[in-house]
Amino acid sequence: MAQSSKPSESRLQTDVVLKWTGLVVFAVIVLASLPGNTFRILPEYNLLEPWRHDDLTADLTFPILKSAQEIEAEETLTRRQTPPVFIQSTQQELLEEELENRWNERLESLEQVLDQRSNPSDSVAVGQAISTLPFALDSPEWDQLQELYTSSGGIQQALSPLTEALVQVQRTIILDQTLTQIDPIEVMVRNTVERTERTVNKSVANDRQTALEEAATIAHESLSSLSLSTLRELASDLLQPTTNYSEIESQRRLDNALSKLSNTKGAIAQGQIIIRRGDIVTEERAAHLESYVAARSADVTQIERWTRMAGEMILVIGINLILLVYLRLYRPDIFGQWRTLYPVLIVIALMTAITRVSYSVDSFQAEMVPLAIAPIVLTILFDQRLGMLAMLTLASTTALIQDSSYEFYLATMMAGSAGVFSVKQIQKRTHFFFTTPAAVLGGYVLVYGGLAISQLQPLDVAAGRVVPLLINAALILFAWPLLLLFEKGFRLTTDLALQELSDTNHPLMKKLMNEAPGTFHHSLQVSNLAENAANAIGANGMLCRVGGYFHDIGKMDRPQFFVENQTEGNRHDVLNPIMSQKIIREHVSKGVEMGREAGLPAPILRIIQTHHGTSLIRFFFDKAQKTTDREKEVGAIEEEDYRYDGPLPTTKEEGILMLADGVEAASRAVKPADEKKLDALIAQLIEIPLEDGQLDQCPLTIPEINAVRESFFKTLKGLYHQRIEYPEDKDSNSEPASGDTEASSDSSSKGTPKDESSQDSSTS
Questions:
Q1: How far is CA 532 from CA 15, 49, 707, in A?
Q2: Which helix H or strand E contains 585, and what residues bound it?
Q3: pTM of the predicted protein model
Q4: Which residues is 26 bridged to in the sheet?
Q5: Which residues fall within 8 angstroms of residue 684, CB to CB, at 6 or more apart?
Q6: E-state strands within 217-287
Q7: pLDDT bracket for residue 755 (50, 70, 90)
Q8: Is the separation of the CB atoms in 238 and 165 below 8 Å?
Q9: Residues of 689-724 as b/e, b for ≥16 C-beta within 10 angstroms?
Q10: Structural contact between residues 755 and 748, judged by C-beta atoms closer than 8 angstroms
Q11: pLDDT tens sequence across 84-93
């Protein structure tokens, strides 16, 4: 015995260490989530509403900060007014020489084509020559050029005005970027050789296209016989940029201009009233208030910072201590085990830490954090009360992180509560993906919409919350993988998992129906009795229902040894009592073994294991005593040898299943003649395990047991009401006296126990 107690003590110590380690880590994470680097001086206020606090006087001189819109407007104007830098080419003569060479080559090619066009018989050669030219002219334009060439005596002489125009324009400022790409109205042209720079209006400078237009316009004054389009085609791609854009110098000049901008506009002197009580908080006054906050925060002492942090820590500790005290006093089943406590701590700490991260990241709005995940998960894992208390705890803590924002607190409470209500009666996992996100979104919309209307917020401000709230609702779906993680990682059983097991198409139930149909029917009736009774006292009805389904699956190992499954003969007639009771007892251990192999959750396995507790298998115990009486061996039979192995029920659901099992089997065997006898029978069957100590470790109270009894009566009355109505039933099926239940239930089976629970519960 000493050796067996050591592992138990060691395991208990390990559980205690793990539990308190989790509590310490939880406290560290929550306290570390407080934004200690900020210092909020002002109470909350709303734009365009009266200042409801006392007059605010400046206790220091501080500059008035420009708004983000003002700073952005100034930066945009500076970018538009700062000219980009272009470096003037040092190879101007080379550019002119290259222009002259390329132009002469083009003139020679043009002259050859014009000479060939003067001979109409060689049209094919003319077409081939035209296709090699770097420009394209239509037939009328070729005719105009042919006429000019013929009358001038040479192409160079004919197009000399265009030659002069090209050289003239090439000597001007030609930018290597199009003018439409340049936002400022001026450009800076820098000559690195002469070390000079000058600002030039864009209207004076050219890009390659405008330079071509200018050359064509100048030449057209002397070559009016040719169209402007002809001149542009002839001179296309000849002019080269004379200045090149310098991105490095342009950015350096822009950065220098931006650095000279000020983010302040005036100042408020010490002692000056910033805002009076009742004044409307206009945008200008709001700027003064925020400027004061910034200056005061920068001027705050380290003692003030630590004092503020200490105050917030006290608040956070107090808020979370309420949750832990509630668990300690009213939910010891959760607080007492680390496997059940950890999911509570993890989900709250996780949501708190994410809120802290969102507070630090400017691009991440607090409304995006799916805080409702915490109460939703805890409601599904445990119950609605814990979910609501967790929501209150989380909303209070995260509101402190968000500068004690009442709006954030109210919206979080409303959305979380809506999420809790949406999963209270959830029947299928698929329902979660539609109803819960919609409920959470509705809670947020209700609060923020009401605040927007009451505060007369501009439409763009209210609409700015739409996308973050939609993201929040979508992120609620992450509660599902978190829930599955807790179910598998901490071996927790939720009502959703039980709901899936309540399908009678489960492989074990189908096997029970086929191999032990009588037991299957008995199990359905027990589940119905137990579920109704559990709901009557606020216990877990779904757990009782599923536990009732599976509590007797062990009978599938030897179904013919139980009377409800027998069709021919009684196999116990040829067995001695000790062998019979062994077979009866084994159905409990066999049921646990089958349940483990099928992957049934731990609460169901506990119901299978405890639904008889350590009760006496009285039928075979009495039979054994009668046998020893005949053999003059009175006292040779030990009662302990005819009791189930246990353990005793330790939860309300386990106790209800034990009572329901005995009441259903015995009431079906005895067949009470009227409602009064049915009620008396139920009272007697409940009293037997109470007197035997089977419910000593079960938390069922006397009022709850009475409620269970009433529930059993209502359910069974509905089952037997038709038979009870007939007087002839009362005459022909009178209830046997106490102690004769076995004779009544087994009259057709020569003493075979119909159900061991009836044997244990129906004797007094």
A1: 35, 56, 10
A2: helix 577-598
A3: 0.60
A4: none
A5: 738, 764
A6: 243-245, 264-268, 273-275
A7: very low
A8: no
A9: beebebbebbebeeebbebbbebbbebbeebbeeeb
A10: no
A11: 999 998 888 8
